[in-house]
Amino acid sequence: MTTESILLNHKASVVYSLPGTKRFNLIEDSIGTGSHFHFHPFDADLPDIILTGYAREVEATQISIDYDQLSPNATLATTKEEHQRMVKEAMRRIIETDLDKVVVSSTFFAPGKVQLAPALLSLREKHENAFVYAFFHPEAGLWMGASPEILVSGLPEGYTTVSLAGTRLYTDEPQPWGQKESLEQSIVTDYIKGQLKASGAEDIRIARPETVRYGEIEHLKSILRFRADNLQKVVQHLHPTPAVCGSPYQTARKTIEELENHARMWYTGYLGIETANSEAAFYVNLRCGQVFADGMLAYSGGGITFDSEPLNEWEETREKLYAFLSAFGNFKNLRENLH
Questions:
Q1: Of 107, 108, 117, 192, whose CB neighbour count within 10 A is largest?
Q2: Domain 6-330 falls in which CATH fold?
Q3: Is residue 16 a contact partner of residue 132, using CB atoms and an 8 Å limit?
Q4: Residue ranges of the domains in the chain?
């Protein structure tokens, strides 16, 4: 392993660390063979970016940013009033139309220079079960994240996906989940099962929901295992799941386009590795943000159902943002600014 310094945003490249590991790998886009790193957007008008190259192990401390190559942020953060207005309108549509659930997202701008290497190490330490990454491409800019949600992982004879939904603050004493969170998670599970069947997947097995922790918040998660011969067909059927969009899909997507006052870009898209033998490690692009010269534009969202409480939904997005951004360490007065 070499120890040269690497300016990540000088070439289309990605540095990443898989869940449960401390190791970081680097892929720099090149002509030829190797693994494929996918960076797929949520917004349909943006490109599906694929880097091709061989992964090599690096130290996070080798990676840095050339700030002269970054532009300042120009996107306004979502206000509390705007978010609650979106939630109330989403609830009205759920009651009056065929919409069962929709995910409403918001943005937050954290001013201050991102120190890439310390941030990567802190995210890896704080979120050991997340996919941690920093990605740069001229068409997308520089993004960082620590996603807790698998889209597809494994080999053709044994792939895994997860149904992740429902959010609450972590407490030392285990508590039963409420009706709203349980319903939200069951909607996601049923949808994923149906999409797996439609993609031609076989031997689908669903584990019972369990509670998983992400920083100071926790979620409900069910693991689904299956076999499949066509990985890309599975991915196309799974993404976007109700956990990031809603149900039914077309109605939820139209609602998002009409309600949200910002472009999601690559937030709630998916990213990850695919090898030549169809081994996959794809993750939903959650707990992420775009790095600018003057700070980070971070994204967060939550599932809205008929019995949502608008203020609680706003607070949920704040807790998710804090769980992610607090790992960076250099965003002053973060807790106060989020609220």
A1: 107
A2: Anthranilate synthase (3.60.120)
A3: yes
A4: 6-330
With H, G, I as helix, E, B as strand and everything else as coil, classify residue 272: strand
- pTM comes to 0.92
Residues 320-331 pLDDT 10s: 999 999 999 888
What values do phi and psi take at 53, rounded to 5? Answer: 175, 175
- Checking if the pLDDT of 16 tops 70, the result is yes
The set of residues, in sequence order, having a beta carbon less than 8 Å from that of 9 and lying 6+ positions away, is 65, 66, 69, 70, 136, 142
- Cα–Cα distance measured from residue 89 to residue 31, given in angstroms and rounded to the nearest whole number: 48
Ramachandran angles phi, psi of 262, nearest 5°: -140, 155
* Length of the chain in terms of residues written: 339
51 by DSSP, 3-state: which? Answer: strand
Q: Give me the DSSP letters along 144-173.
A: EEEE--EEEEEETTEEEEEEEEEEEE--SS
Between CA 334 and CA 20 the distance in angstroms is 27
